[in-house]
């Protein structure tokens, strides 16, 4: 190999290495600057979601030893539990936050993140589907396609997998609330 060819290879390699280093530094700086802001924003979104689920709560106290699980409190007393679950839906994991009353009935839930099909599975976040869960206890958290079974959760048309996944996530939250002291 000639000396000029070796010199060209060295220059190309040096340019690639410098480009990678500069790119890495830029990405690192952006993450360093925006990382804390993103964490604060995510925490605020979670607090807002919990307040929407349990509007009467004055405070949300983290359950010791339970990640992202909270006691919703008013006047220093627990009035509900706010419990995260992550069932597998049609489009992947569905991050849910479910509020469960002390008597073990579902107050409400919210979908924090999901990849369900727009217009089908993502309808699980809409009031029509969510409303079916309010006041239901563990024994009525079952999906059905039979419209005469009004005491159960009616599956969304074209989104049975998503319906079952959300119901499973809410059911897991109710079971967890029972372990924490609910019924």
Automatic annotation (TrEMBL):
The modification FMN phosphoryl threonine is found at residue 160. SMART domains: FMN_bind. Pfam families: FMN_bind. Residues 89-177 form the FMN-binding domain. The keyword Signal does not apply. Part of a membrane-bound complex that couples electron transfer with translocation of ions across the membrane. This is Ion-translocating oxidoreductase complex subunit G.
């Amino acid at each position: 190999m000639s000396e000029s060819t070796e010199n060209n290879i060295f220059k190309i390699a040096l340019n690639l290495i410098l480009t990678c280093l500069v790119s890495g530094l830029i990405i690192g700086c952006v993450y360093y600057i925006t990382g804390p802001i993103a964490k604060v924003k995510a925490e605020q979104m979670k607090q807002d979601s919990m307040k929407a689920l349990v509007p009467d709560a004055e405070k949300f106290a983290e359950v010791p030893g339970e990640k992202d699980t909270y006691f919703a409190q008013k006047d220093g007393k627990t009035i509900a539990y706010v419990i995260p679950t992550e069932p597998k839906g049609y489009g992947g994991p569905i991050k849910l936050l479910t509020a469960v009353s002390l008597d073990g009935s579902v107050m409400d839930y919210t979908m924090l993140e999901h990849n369900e099909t727009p217009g089908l599975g993502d309808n699980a976040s809409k009031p029509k589907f969510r409303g079916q869960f309010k006041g239901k206890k563990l024994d009525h958290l079952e999906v059905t396609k039979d419209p005469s079974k009004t005491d159960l959760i009616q599956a969304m048309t074209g989104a049975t997998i998503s319906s079952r996944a959300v119901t499973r996530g809410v059911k897991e939250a109710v079971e967890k609330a029972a372990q924490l002291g609910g019924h």
